[in-house]
Design goal:
This protein is mainly α and 1253 residues long. 58% of the residues lie in helices and 0% in strands. The longest helix is centred in the N-terminal third of the chain and has 40 residues. It is flat, with a radius of gyration of 41 Å.
């Protein structure tokens, strides 16, 4: 490190080798002093400082330093106009003065008294760290660096762990900027003289090196930031020196090459002297940078604090970009490569951004070739990083590499990135879209020279390439995601609808590749998605948080795009429909296009003839297709074209009415024929009814067709099917759906108008008759008919429930329907028979057809819809809550399929009625117990898996009650009451000496004992004793063990029950030294009156409140540990449990809550993560050797490859012992001393033992 003759701030703990000593040259250049004087003219005038009074305890740093100074300086003891003293720290913090003026004033004070000026600078760094102490002149002159830092550590503020660099708010964010700017300006203003005086830089670098090795986070963080910014400023100085050397060498060579008579020898001597001086300055700058790099960077880039590591990586990236000749080599790139494996996303993000700045410059690619080959796999894998910001930057870095070098990445690497265009996170998908555009544009670069339009334009090839990529990705339902990913980077391509329609409509030219059927379908799907994106101007569902408000520019672009696509497709769409009218997939996509039109263009542009063409093609489509998707697309398009706000409404309404009239007449005649023929109806009669009914049902969904009275015909079909039992299932399903739409449209009319009593009675009669038909259909032999009837029953019961009269609609009370017990039981039995079934039963119900994975998922989705429909009836109190018992009992068995639905149902029902919900839970357990008794008999094997399954279900139910026992007090007590009554409900027929048949149920009830309050346990126990005889209390046989276990669960734990979160203060004495200042009490005893509360829990009216969790005091002590390397600061990555799972219940408010990160911590990362090649004393660490200018020696050959895989920071989990060490340390807010390691080991063993149990 740098040494000086002045023996101050020298840290004896840092060793220096023989090559580290700097031999400064004597500088006596008068013009440099003149430069300093010129800059000093800008200093601000300040009044003389007043002498301080006698010293008092806890004086401010200004008062401490006041008597020591006899002249004004910029930093410590000056006064402003109002007489308030300000320090250099306060001047920088406020930022009211220009930073160059502040630095010039300090330089002037340094020229007058460099000791006092440096004292100002030292105190500036101390105060920027948040320390309230100040270095006095005696300390500065007589104490070593380590002693001063220890003294400042003792004077740290104990009240808060915050310091200026971590404080929130815009003021402190500005301070960070001012702090960095001050250091940069200081070096820039001192670069001609002061930094070479063998004093200032020696003192500053020595101070920062000592502070950066402190165990106090504030010192370490602040000094590292200062040192890295200081290094950046020195790199800039070194770069300027190199440029000046090259310029001087050119001048010297130019002068020397002149003829002897014209050569100026005096100028040559001056240039030689200047070159020598610049060379000496460069050598000194190299020594300074070596001291900072070896003394600070190589330690702090692997610091325990992620923010410190991020600072180091960010600045080394700046050095490599600023002075690539010196720093852009393997010796420095390896630090960035290693840190790509950092566990914190913040650090990985800084690595990627630093590399992006390098790969942006194409000239630097040759120097990055070895690094790219070594770390490209890691960079590509980071595109799947769990931190989305990191993944985005990794994709952008891959894009830059792809742009700069075609051979750097393999096809497999690129494909891994391309498929991220389907990511649900939009920034990741957009970045991947940019990469895809770079690849596609480069692939078709030879076509870009032709300025053609349409199918032969460069966009034509790009469209073909996009279609091919979409087909190869095999994600055909995600075209909208692909378009959205490319939207920001390729709008010109995606909005070239002229090119797309030409590819679809025009015949292929000779020698041109013809689009196949799959390619045409994919192109139409992509084209419709681009139209939707342009018209709606927001991402598809799943991308983003919702529709945001568009800016004026975006709104204008949206209007322009909508007009453009409308003008184009008004003419092109009828032709496309005409060409593909027989293809249902293509037609269903094309019929979505009019939904995004600006329909005013039809009338404003006098394009009614194109509207007639469109309506004609749509009529042809309706007549030729019976596919549901096509018919629903036509229905939606007719609905939009019939909007009353457009002038074309009348024209479209006439066409629609004519179409419905024709379909209705056809349907009526076909129904009459079918009813007349009955069982003798042939396939043609069935097809005529089904095809007409499908079309009418699709239109009835979006249009009010009540005036055509479709309900009557559909009801007749359903009644005939019920009576004769021979109705085809497709006709029955469509008739049910059409009748349902008819009822809803009638309800809309009633609610929107002022209905008469007759209207309500008529609608009630219709609804009642349809509900009866649906209930009868539940016993149909065809599964699709039963499922359709069940869904419609649930929907209509929900719609016509008691909620219909809310919101001032009391007049609709006659329309309210409440299901009777028979209907509720029938609905419940349907759920049990069709939802809670095994996979084998499902396969048999599918009539032996072999299902693939997609069919299984579709079947599961259908069953989930059935369960959700019935659960809604329970939640909204339409079906009695006890019916949920048969659903709750399947919670464990079908957790993977329906766990989320059952859990949400349980949560909602508890919000409705806690006590009734508890009764339902215990009823579900009783049902399971009865089923088990029926299967195995009264003598149950308590160790069997079936009994364990019931106990596990009870444990899960107990976890759902949460930690607030006050809120669930009555519910839990009622649950125990019902459980006890069930256990003793029947007497053993063999006599009183034998246990009751249901006694084993008490073992299940034990799972809920922990949810009882202490006084409630006593009451429940008293209630239990009412059912027990004296003989029962004395029995100890195995058959009586459930009773014994249940009694013990009520008797134990009553005396030590507490409502507050348990605190482990008994172990805190084994912790290392911590500050006792302001320590809150660990426990607050509950009032004695509460402990004595007795009385019946069945008649209690609770008003108790649960006290909140106690706040753990924050550790801010700055006492130094004797051996900071003994206990490495491990921060294990803990896998978060699934939200709502039982670990979520257990640990939501548990003992392991993370406290605020202490200010006092170990300075290094985990010992397992330390670099093996850095465990030495850094003798082999490279020395910063700036590249020679043209007059210097040739650059030494490249150093060996430093990319040692053994030195990479491994991203691996820590040991179980260190995991408990971290939790123990975080919980008790202390640092482990050597004596407490034994207690930690005992704590670990106990925790492990409990886990094994």
């Amino acid at each position: 490190m740098i040494t000086s003759e002045f023996p101050v701030l020298q840290d004896s703990s840092n060793e220096s080798g023989p090559g580290d000593t700097v031999s400064y040259s004597t500088l006596s250049v008068s013009e440099l002093d003149d430069v300093g004087d010129t800059k000093g003219k800008r200093k601000r005038g300040r009044p003389a400082r007043s002498t301080a009074a006698s010293k008092k305890p806890r004086k401010s740093p200004v008062e401490k330093l006041g008597p020591l100074r006899g002249k004004k300086t910029n930093g410590v003891a000056q006064q402003n106009g109002e007489g308030d003293p300000t320090t250099l720290f306060e001047v920088v913090r406020l930022g009211k003065s220009a930073m160059q003026s502040v630095v010039d004033d300090w330089i002037e004070s340094y020229k007058q008294d460099r000791d006092l000026a440096l004292l100002d600078l030292i105190n500036f760094f101390i105060q920027c760290s948040g320390c309230k102490g100040a270095v006095r002149i005696e300390m500065f002159r007589n104490m070593q660096n380590a002693e001063i830092i220890r003294k400042m550590t003792e004077e740290f503020d104990e009240d808060s762990g915050d310091y200026p660099l971590t404080m929130p708010g815009p003021q402190w964010k500005k301070f960070r900027y001012n702090f960095c700017e001050f250091i940069g300006v200081l070096i820039r203003q001192c670069q001609y003289s002061i930094i070479y005086d063998e004093y200032m830089m020696d003192t500053v670098i020595s101070l920062l090196t000592g502070l950066s090795d402190s165990q106090v986070r504030a010192f370490r963080h602040t000094s590292t930031l200062a040192a890295m910014k200081l290094m950046t400023a020195l790199v800039n100085v070194a770069l300027n020196l190199s440029i000046n050397q090259d310029n001087t060498q050119r001048q010297y060579d130019s002068e020397r090459n002149k003829m002897a008579g014209k050569r100026a020898n005096e100028k040559l001597e001056l240039l030689l002297e200047k070159r020598k001086e610049l060379q000496e300055n460069q050598d000194e700058i190299e020594n300074m940078m070596n001291s900072i790099f070896k003394g600070i960077f190589v330690h702090r880039y692997r610091d325990a604090i992620a923010e410190i590591r991020a600072i180091c990586i960010e600045e080394i990236g700046v050095w490599m970009k600023m002075y690539s000749d010196a720093f852009l080599n393997d010796s420095y790139l390896k630090y960035v490569g290693w840190t790509l494996h950092d566990r914190q996303g913040e650090v990985r993000l800084k690595c990627l951004k630093a590399l992006q700045n390098l790969y942006t410059n194409r000239e630097l690619f040759p120097k990055l070739e070895l690094f790219t080959n070594r770390f490209k796999d890691r960079i590509v894998s980071m595109t799947l990083d769990k931190e989305y910001d990191v993944a985005v930057e990794a994709i952008r870095l891959v894009t830059l590499i792809l742009q700069g070098s075609e051979d750097a990445l393999s096809n497999e690497d690129c494909e891994n990135v391309y498929h991220l265009v389907y990511s649900a996170h939009r920034p990741v998908a957009v970045a991947a879209g940019d990469t895809f555009c770079v690849w596609s544009c480069r692939s078709s670069a030879e076509e870009a020279l032709a300025k053609r339009r349409g199918r032969n334009s460069p966009n034509g090839n790009l469209v073909r390439m996009l279609v091919l990529f979409f087909l190869e990705s095999e994600l055909h339902e995600h075209a909208a995601y692909l378009v959205d990913s490319l939207w920001d980077s390729s709008q010109d391509l995606l909005k070239d609808w002229e090119c797309m329609t030409e590819l679809l409509l025009e015949e292929a030219l000779q020698g041109e590749e013809v689009l196949g059927d799959r390619h045409e379908s994919a192109l139409i799907e992509l084209m419709v998605c681009t139209i939707r994106q342009a018209a709606e101007a927001h991402p598809p569902v799943g991308r983003g948080t919702g529709k945001r408000v568009l800016t004026a520019k975006e709104r204008k672009t949206q209007i322009d795009d909508k007009n453009k696509l409308t003008e184009h497709f008004i003419m092109a769409l009828p032709m496309l429909l005409s060409k593909y009218q027989t293809d249902s997939e293509k037609v269903s996509n094309l019929l979505q296009v009019p939904q995004f039109f600006d329909l005013d263009v039809y009338s404003a542009g006098r394009m009614e003839k194109h509207l007639d063409s469109l309506l004609k093609q749509m009529r042809f489509v309706v007549e030729k297709h019976t596919d549901t998707d096509v018919l629903e697309a036509c229905s939606r398009t007719y609905s939009i074209l019939c909007s009353e706000e457009y002038t074309i409404m009348n024209r479209v309404d006439i066409a629609r009415s004519q179409l419905i009239d024709e379909l209705s007449d056809r349907f009526g005649h076909s129904v009459e024929d079918l009813l007349q023929e009955g069982d003798e109806a042939d396939d043609d009669d069935i097809y005529n009814v089904l095809s007409s009914l499908k079309r009418l049902t699709a239109f009835h969904n979006a249009h009010d067709l009540t005036k055509w009275d479709l309900f009557g015909s559909c009801y007749r079909l359903l009644k005939m099917g019920i009576e004769q039992g021979s109705m085809p299932e497709q006709i029955a399903v469509q008739a049910l759906q059409c009748s349902h739409y008819s009822i809803l449209w009638q309800l809309v009319k009633v609610t929107e108008g002022s209905p008469s009593k007759d209207d309500l009675i008529a609608l009630r009669r219709v609804v009642k008759s349809f509900l009866a038909v649906c209930q009868q259909c539940l016993s149909n032999v065809n599964t699709p008919v039963k499922e359709q009837a069940f869904m419609l029953l649930c929907d209509l019961l929900m719609i016509f429930s008691h909620q219909l009269t809310t919101g001032g609609r009391e007049g609709l009370q006659p329309l309210v329907f409440n299901p009777d017990g028979a209907l509720q039981n029938e609905l419940l039995n349907f759920i049990l028979d069709h939802v809670f079934i095994d996979q084998d039963d499902e396969n048999q119900s599918m009539e032996g057809d072999e299902e693939d994975e997609a069919n299984k998922i579709e079947a599961l989705h259908k069953r989930r819809n059935l369960l959700a429909a019935f659960s809604k009836l329970i939640i909204y109190d339409i079906v009695d809550m006890p019916a949920a018992a048969d659903i709750f009992k399947h919670y464990m068995k079908y957790y993977n399929d329906y766990g989320d639905i059952i859990k949400e149902t349980l949560s909602k029902t508890r919000q409705t009625d806690k006590i009734l919900c508890a009764k339902t839970l215990i009823l579900s357990l009783q049902k399971l117990f009865n089923e088990l008794v029926q299967d195995q008999g009264p003598n149950l094997d308590r160790t069997s898996s079936h009994v364990s399954g019931i106990k596990e279900l009870a444990r899960r139910f107990a976890l759902t009650f949460g930690l607030d026992q006050i809120k669930t007090r009555e519910a839990v007590a009622t649950l125990h009451k019902d459980g006890i009554e069930f256990a003793f409900k029947y007497q053993n027929p063999k006599g009183p000496d034998f246990p009751p048949p249901n006694l084993a149920f008490l073992e299940v009830l034990c799972e809920f004992s922990s949810k009882l309050l202490r006084q409630d346990k006593k009451t429940v126990h008293s209630y239990l004793e009412k059912f027990m005889t004296e003989q029962m209390m004395e029995r100890r046989e195995d058959v009586w063990l459930p009773l014994i276990a249940y009694r013990n669960s009520l008797l134990t734990g009553g005396d030590d029950d507490r409502m507050s979160v348990t605190s482990a203060n008994s172990s805190s004495k084994a912790s290392s030294v911590r500050s006792k200042k302001g320590r809150p009490p660990l426990h607050k005893k509950r009032p004695e009156a509460e402990e004595g509360m007795e009385g019946s829990w069945m008649m209690r009216n609770d008003t108790l409140q649960t006290p909140g969790a106690l706040q753990t005091p924050q550790l801010t002590s700055t006492v130094l540990r004797e051996n900071p390397r003994q206990a490495a600061d491990h921060v294990p990555d803990q896998d978060s449990s699934e939200a709502g799972s039982e670990p979520d219940y257990i640990h939501k408010r548990g003992l392991m809550e993370d406290d605020a990160e202490p200010i006092f911590e170990d300075v290094m990362m985990s010992s397992r993560g330390q670099l093996e090649d850095m465990n030495e004393e850094f003798e082999d660490t490279m020395v910063i050797d700036l590249p020679p200018s043209r007059n210097r020696r040739e650059r030494a050959e490249l150093r060996p490859d430093f990319f040692d895989s053994a030195a990479i920071i491994e991203d691996e989990s820590v040991s179980c012992y260190m995991f408990w060490s971290c939790i123990y340390r975080n919980h008790f807010n202390c640092m482990l001393s050597a004596s407490s390691e034994f207690y930690l080991f005992i704590f670990f063993c106990q925790g492990f033992g409990m886990q094994m149990f």
